[in-house]
Amino acid sequence: MEPDVKEGDQVLVSTLSFHNLRGPKKMRDSFEFSRKHPVFPVSLVKPYFQTEEDKFPSRKKNPTPPDIVEVEDSPRPVSKFIRARKIRLNGKDQRQYLVRFKNQAADKDKWLEEDAIPDGSLHLRRFRASMRTEQSDQL
After folding, report:
1. Which 8-state DSSP code applies to residue 116?
2. Domain-by-domain residue ranges, the chain?
């Protein structure tokens, strides 16, 4: 039984006879120099019908989940300080600290100024003390 398909109709094509559908492929410009005829067997083609809500009123639509938005302004608890650096912003030297947050991977580490770190003074005292002990151990 052949499907009633005309030129320009949308169809579904069976992929059983396609052996390698993985990866990006470069398409040829045209078939004019090819020895293959650019057609599909009718047995692999099935007409495509777009579903409409009025045809299937009892079918429930899946609600799209809301986009996950990561709020950057919320203060996250600091796990530890990793490094310190001085940078020049607007003609002034500023010290920044590489901070790792609790329950976050190393790729989420951020350079922050002291005033942008929640409980910064407490953590900075510990960090500076650990830096002093590391320097005295190296001597």
Report:
1. G
2. 78-138
